[in-house]
Model the fold of this input.
Amino acid sequence: MRSSPSSTQLVSRSTAKGRRERRRAARRRIPWWMMVPAVFLLAVLVVAPFGVSIYTSFTELNQYTLTDWLHAPWVGLANYVTALTQGNALGASALQSVGVSVAFSVLTTAIITPIGIVAALLVNKPFRGRAIVRALFLLPYVIPVFVNAIAWRLLFMNGWGLVDQVLAALHLASKNTYWLIGPNSFWAMVIADVWASWPFIYLMTLAGLQGISQELYESADMDGAGVFRSLFSITFPMLKPVLGLAVLLSTLNHFNNFTLPYIMFGTPPPPQADVLPLNVYVTSFQTFNFGLGAAMSLITLVLMMIPAVLYIRSLRLGEDMT
Amino acid sequence: MIASVRRRRQVWAVWRAVGILAFACLILAPLGYMVVVSLTPDSQVGGGAIFPTHVAWGNYVRMWGTINLARDIGNSLLISASTGVMATLVAMGAAYVTARFRFPGRRFFLLSLATFQTIPGVMLLLPLFAIIVVLQTALRVTLIGTYFTVIMTYLTFALPFASWLLVSYLAAIPVELEEAALVDGAGRLQVVRHIVLPLAVPGMVVTFVFSFLLAWGDVLFASVLTNQSTRTLAVGLQAYVSAGETGGDVYWGQLMAASLASGLPIVVIFLLLQRYIIGGLTGGALKG
Done:
């Protein structure tokens, strides 16, 4: 591990050259001990559990076999079959949850992207009071997710929640729309999430806008290009890489979404809002079918690998991180 | 020509004002409603009236008694701060080596850090729970419900993220000072302590704050791994809500008062450190 070249040891220690050589060797020597705690903890806390998770997905692990899970009965692919066909006793099947999760993450990302871009364009150029507006725009994002979920649970309460009251006053919907159960629950979750997560796109867009040279706009202006022409010919093409990354990250984050539906709907959630992580949670910790839960979480992971691989490839590891 | 430019600016200023106003309304309406409900007497919350007949400041007093709010906040502070310190210190070592040296496996390590951040928490909670249960019976110790267990499991998401943040931060610090010190005969440990650490303090603060916030916002791990006396604020507040599921009354007024009181410090931290934190937000801070 320690790469001290043998040649330095041959040189007499008293010579100046030898001293220099030794110091250079010390400079090159990698202080591995500094890395040991992190690597050890990651191995114990992430890699090992990951392996256990794969193993248990092939076993019939439940509350009876949990204390001796190494000897839980081996059931092969049965958990995967169950996951895709029926799911746990309380909620949707994993396949249905896959649909909910994919729809949720794609839809929310599709909605927050234009909102975030518009917000960024609004505050990109300096004006009086901009600092306050920027702080205001961050507000929904910095509120803890569990607080956000509690607030929207209140807002969507049937009959007397603010949403139902406003919709009824505007004659848009009945006071008894039932946002927190049944098919509307999916939309309630989407609305609550959009309210909280659009500043992510906004922040990414702002960062991207700062990278666009002002000269581009000036020369476009000289050539007689209007505001919209500049927007579509300069701003959007220049934002494309940043936005690509933002959309990927947003899709990933939303696929991991657990806290919002868990607190908004409680458990078991309505099947229409039963996202995969929540379904895995209920399967594992409320119906105690750990083997099935593990199989479902692996299905989740495989699906997430699609945006994750795209994201990791976009990082270009080792090139910009020197 | 100049007149038309000025006119165009005025039109844009109007549109901008309209846009910002619309955003402000949509952002503030739910928050305003939370404030109103937090000041509404329990008996009037479900009545349908948006504004209460009198202001019930009492909610902000009684919220400390309905659940043990002070203890829950204390637990959250202890667990989140410990997670932040642990993650930052442990990540610092790995990040320094990764940022300063080329070695076989370096790329693999970076790749792992990025990959670990995308693993769903619930996927790790399940096997961790199984492992902890086995350790409990084998060693005859209590692990579930202890601060130690919760903090360690929070490292599953805090550590990869903290390492990732610090690698990019340290890579941006010029290496010349360190090399000069090494040439002058300083050891690696001295270099790290006297040169790298002082320069890395802002990055470490951001890393600490982010790890703290990740831990503060977690519900998943806490709901399984804490017990009545170690439960965090998020789990405590959820106890208010689930009272309604089992047929009891939900004290919405108190719940909103407690939610606002617990959200406020976080918002203040963010706004104070805004400039430093935004880099971390856009740099892949994962909210779950």
User: Anything to note?
Assistant: The radius of gyration of chain B is 24 Å. Chain B touches chain A through 109 residues (CB under 8 Å). Confidence is low (pLDDT under 50) at residues 284-288 of chain B. Residues 2-38 of chain B form one domain.
